[in-house]
Amino acid sequence: MTQNITATQAIADKPKTSSTHHVPATGVCVTVHGHFYQPPRENPYLDVIERQPSAYPCHDWNERILYECYRPNVFSRILNGQGEVVGIVNNFEYMSFNVGPTLMSWLERHDREVYQGIIEADRKSTERLNGHGNAIAQAYNHIILPLANERDKYTQVRWGKADFRSHFGRDPEGMWLAETAVDYPTLKVLVDEGIRFIILAPSQAKRCRPLSTAENPDPDWLEVGGSQIDPTRPYRCILEGDRSIDIFFYDGPISRDMGFNEVLNSAGNFAGRLGQAVRRPSQLICVATDGETFGHHKGGTEKCLSYSFIQEFPSRGWTVTNFAHYLDENAPEWEVELKAVTAWSCAHGVDRWQDDCGCGGGGLWNQKWRRPLRDTLNWLRDRLGEIYETHGRKFLSDPWLARDRYIHSIRDRSPENTINFLFRHQSHTLEPAEQVDALRLLEMQRQSLLMFTSCGWFFDELSRPEGVQILRYAARAIELAGDVAGVQLEAEFRDRLQKAPSNVEIFGNGAKVYDELVVSARVTFERVAAHYAITSLFKHYQSEDRVYCYEATQLDYHRQQMGALTLAVGQLRLVSEITRESQEFIVAVLHFGGWDFHCCIQPFIGRLAYSQIKDKLFSALSEASVAKTLFAMTRVFGDRVFNLETLFAEEREWIVQQVANTSKENLDRLFTQAYRDNYSLLQAFYREELPVPQELKASAEIALSRRCLKVLQQFEEAKDRDRQDMYLTELEAIVTEAENMRCRMTLPNAKQLLEALILRDCQALLGEANPETVAEESQRISRTIQMGDRLQVDLSLDRVQEYYFRCLHGDILPQCVVVEGETVSCPWDIVNVPVLLDLGVQLAVDVHQWL
Question: Contact, 711 vs 729, CB < 8 A?
């Protein structure tokens, strides 16, 4: 093809990316730091986040913020005046950032594309900024380090460093402290662990002065205790023995405006506000805020950030840099002394995490529970430490060194890695039971650290999800201590919690919160086995499968149906991926139909006994008698019974849906028949513009919704293009009929299904590059998009847009642009390229200059 385009013009329309040449940290330098973090929300028994209804329509808050913040920042749009995409920028490539280790691991599991995008951004920033990446580490699970004992301080920093290294492949130069909480013992730990710099709030500085020189060995101190420190330069904090750590203080007023004012409404506003901090021709402007500000707290502001980085800041001659790069070329010339104990979100030092200081409160509620909770967990930590050291020496050559390195086992729970970890730290060759106890002790310590996650104290009520979560960690640690050492800590733990008053009348105190919201959520091996047994009636398990963080081996399994009754009996082995402890069970579950399940569990006691139990139960079932079957189960297993309530929340809701589907199918058929029988009557109502009876309208909506969902499923499953076109045509007919009948169909999952289909077709179109089918495939994509619009399912085409944009600038234009003096082999012909560009128009990508 030939078009009036030059290669230079094509490249100019791409967003600027990092280059490998060195960027000097001179003139006015800008660093925007984002602290990306979510509290760990995993069930300590299952190692997954369970559904959180408050995060609807998403499964949980991590997922919701992923789509509102983390993904938009990896794929941030630069738009033209018509709202079309002219560039896609990875903001992490230009901003300084830390991602909390527990959040980073969640991203690694749940969105590899975003996870890899963050890692790639750090790599590119390292290339651009002379070996200094944008990412810095974070103390592992966001505990308030000044309130931790020395041993926990070291472990938190070491885990944070090791976790960082496992993701980014390099050692961190800086570290973010939870709530920027700091004291001098914490600084000593950071220096011992090789951390070069930290970032603090201006209110945390006490006084500063120029560094001593030969000409001025003892310069005067300047008092800056009222947030008056100059944030445009780095400072050196000198510890005992002339050891030191460098500190940046973010600009407090601008950082506050980012979170609470309109500064991020536009790149012009943002740059204008930053410009007010320019005092010298060569200086640093640094700001810091929660990373979730960009997109979650303030929707769409990630676009302001990307345009600022790519266009607004460079147009003012400012250099976008990070702290390590700036520090490398601008060594501190000033010394700083910090206040004794401080944090960025508490005016009372760190009392927000230990006392009724008023921070985070409001209304009539108080925080008198904070001190008893802190004291209780400190007591538990110390008792668990004693147990760990005493019993750990039986298995581990150096228990505390093993704890510091346990992060490598947490990052990889595979049996091979776990065994290798124990081999490196064992005091002697451990028997299988000893391996389990060693892992229980290590996991007890992990839970002991997690129970100090700062979020548990941040708000004004103990029974909030954050407070309950840290109590769940404590409960798990208590349980593990009992398993290994036989100690009973729970009774005294509860007694101590009684001193923590709740603001919620039904709880009264922390002990009641613990009983109602923590103890009731415990998970035992028996409950996992019952969960497996009941769900096995609705899903097909492989002989070796996974149930949350348990390896499930189906050693034997038989199921039989007799009328409305279904009986399943099996032999099951469960192994915890975390502690490697295992148990074998005989499981039996009887389903009466509907919501009624009768499940029984007992330890496996031998093949003969299992065979006899199986024969007795199926013999009773063969008589098609509920009473006889139940009687047989009671004689074998006793009267301990598990039912639907035993299931974990996700599968309980899923099974309720499965059971309901049978009744729903029958109702759908009835409504469909009613719609067919009354079709002409409905048309008459609409023709005469009369109010339609609710019953008739409901039958139409249900019938058409059912038809539409069925055809959507067929459309998804169709492999050849002719059948896809056939189902798409049928969908269009259904939608037209629904529009004529003025029906609003209910179509669960239609949005996700259509988005996946459009992405699939777009990948096929651009990936295969078949000129013969371009027009046909492009038309199918357009029709599917129009179908989503007509169904009013609020399609999100972000992923399709990203894929198209990447192919447009990475493949299509480079292959089709005429470069002077070169011959270009283009797979697309003169007819097809406009078709591809028209698709770009429909996807709101700016392609007008090529059209």
Answer: no
